[in-house]
């Protein structure tokens, strides 16, 4: 049990009520750090329909082929304890149970195991000044009455809160329009490859189309290989980019990007290329330059004007994604094996048309780039989506967020990444005013902070927001219950 920090107020006051909407990784990490930092009594209710807290979309998968894509040494939940996860693995003797997690680059355990680590760390945070309760349901509507939030649940229940934290994470992918005519009729169109038994309907001899060529595609190919799949796999994306390999352990970052207030995405790219050339001349891999970019990403984003941020997202994001989010060596090997055997073909193309032909699908692809053919035809037995979350629709597809938009209490950011927040991670309303009692953590806040997808950045951001929330809670708890109306956020430093 993690010991409480500080001591409860001497007043016989009820605890401050915090509701976290979303109990995936972001919501769980926020709750862990709030419990560790609070100096006042707080009741935390996490609204999450999944049976387990902390796993979310990424870490709820039970497929043994799905592994974390960075070495375990970089995946601690506690930035002040960098070996927290690896020590947890040692205590569980995890390597003995799964020797294949060991690679020359480090340990790459299964994602489900990391989800267990998050859930156990959260369970340890419960108690003392912070009580944490899992409300296994979905938030459907949120309203504010004075200084109190009311959160309506799918089962007809209702919660009340003094502070609400939005941690809804990544939305599901959008089904491409070309699949619309056959989507409801064909059982082998798989939208969520992370779902339990997602590939159970796929036979070993089935020909498969994968839409997307990044990390998720690599995981799908690894899953198929583990199942003994022998059919043809066609993977397509607009740029045909594959996730880059880790290659070798990177002990230090190369170059520095935070000291220059970049005002142009083009200038930044030129500097990155110069740094990669200099690193190669010094015998350092390009991955060391990416590490420096990751370290400085939030500073870079903050300095760029809005139009340059949009240019970066429009033209450079796919290249950033494949260099930043690299496949686990086990998945990388599976992709390599499938290509070498001729079972996997990767095309730079878009999906043009899909027609159902008996139990199969007649697929038309439109290749992209110079000298591309007019079209490419394939007959496949299954289609698997690996195109990533539909962030553009996040406020429309989530009913709780949609209710806030309708009430003018929330708006999407300018980049279609999430919701608009200030540097305190307070949600901004339709007039651009922050709400002291409505926060956002994790990928939802990317429009303001930039890099909030990789685990270290999400963890550090959640910890910082939890620290601010803990100080707000302490100041609120020091007042009588009837006077808990003033919000001391002005005295806090931005995240």
3D architecture notes:
With 495 residues, the protein is of the alpha/beta class. The protein contains 15 helices and 18 strands. The strands form 4 sheets. The chain has a 7-stranded mixed beta sheet with strand order 10-16-11-12-13-14-15. The chain has a 6-stranded mixed beta sheet with strand order 5-2-1-9-18-17, covered by helices on one side. Strands 6-7-8 form a 3-stranded antiparallel beta sheet. A hairpin with a 2-residue loop joins strand 13 and strand 14. It is globular.
Low-confidence residue ranges? 1-11
Would you tell me the overall average pLDDT? Answer: 89
Strand % is 15-25%
Shape: globular
Report, as a whole number of angstroms, the end-to-end distance: 28 Å
Helix content: 25-40%
List keywords for this structure.
495 residues, six-stranded mixed β-sheet, globular, seven-stranded mixed β-sheet, 15 helices, alpha/beta
């Amino acid at each position: 049990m993690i010991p409480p920090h500080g001591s409860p107020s001497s007043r016989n006051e009820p605890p401050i009520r915090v509701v976290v909407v979303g109990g995936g990784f972001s919501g769980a990490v926020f709750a862990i750090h709030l419990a560790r930092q609070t100096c006042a009594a707080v009741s935390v209710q996490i609204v999450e329909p999944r049976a387990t807290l902390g796993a979310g979309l990424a870490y709820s998968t039970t497929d043994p082929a799905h592994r974390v894509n960075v070495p375990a040494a970089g995946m601690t939940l506690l930035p002040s304890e960098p070996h927290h996860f690896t020590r947890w693995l040692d205590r569980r003797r995890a390597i003995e149970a799964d020797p294949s997690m060991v690679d020359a680059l480090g340990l790459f355990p299964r994602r489900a195991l990391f989800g267990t680590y998050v859930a156990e760390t959260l369970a340890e945070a419960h108690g003392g000044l912070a009580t944490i309760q899992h409300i296994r349901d979905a938030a459907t509507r949120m309203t504010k009455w004075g200084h109190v939030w009311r959160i309506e649940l799918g089962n007809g229940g209702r919660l009340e809160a003094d502070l609400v934290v939005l941690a809804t994470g990544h939305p599901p992918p959008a089904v491409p329009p070309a699949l619309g005519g056959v989507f409801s009729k064909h059982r082998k169109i798989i939208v969520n490859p992370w779902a339990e038994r997602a590939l159970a309907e796929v036979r070993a001899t089935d020909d498969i189309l994968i839409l997307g060529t990044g990390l998720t595609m690599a995981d799908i190919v690894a899953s198929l290989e583990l199942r003994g799949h022998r059919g043809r796999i066609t993977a397509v994306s607009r740029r045909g980019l594959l996730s880059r390999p880790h290659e070798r352990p990177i002990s230090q970052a190369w170059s520095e990007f935070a000291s220059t207030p970049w005002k142009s995405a083009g200038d930044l790219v030129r500097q990155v290329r110069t740094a990669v050339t200099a690193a190669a001349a010094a015998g350092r891999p390009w991955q060391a330059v990416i590490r420096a970019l990751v370290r400085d990403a939030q500073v870079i984003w903050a300095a760029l004007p809005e139009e340059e941020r949009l240019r970066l997202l429009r033209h450079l994001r796919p290249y950033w994604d494949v260099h930043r989010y690299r496949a686990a060596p086990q998945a990388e090997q599976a992709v390599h094996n499938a290509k070498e055997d001729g079972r996997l073909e990767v095309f730079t193309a878009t999906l043009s048309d899909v027609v159902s032909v008996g139990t199969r699908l007649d697929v038309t692809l439109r290749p992209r780039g110079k000298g591309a053919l007019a079209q490419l035809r394939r007959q496949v037995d299954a289609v698997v989506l690996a195109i990533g979350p539909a962030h553009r629709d996040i406020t429309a597809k989530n009913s709780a967020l949609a209710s806030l938009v309708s009430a003018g209490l929330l708006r999407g950011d300018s980049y279609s990444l999430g919701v608009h927040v200030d540097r305190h991670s307070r949600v901004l309303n339709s007039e651009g005013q922050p709400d002291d009692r409505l926060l956002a953590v994790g990928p939802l806040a990317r429009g303001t902070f930039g890099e909030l997808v990789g685990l270290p950045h999400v963890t550090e951001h959640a910890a910082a927001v939890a620290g601010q929330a803990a100080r707000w809670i302490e100041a609120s708890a020091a007042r009588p219950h009837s006077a808990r109306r003033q919000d001391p956020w002005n005295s806090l430093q931005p995240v």
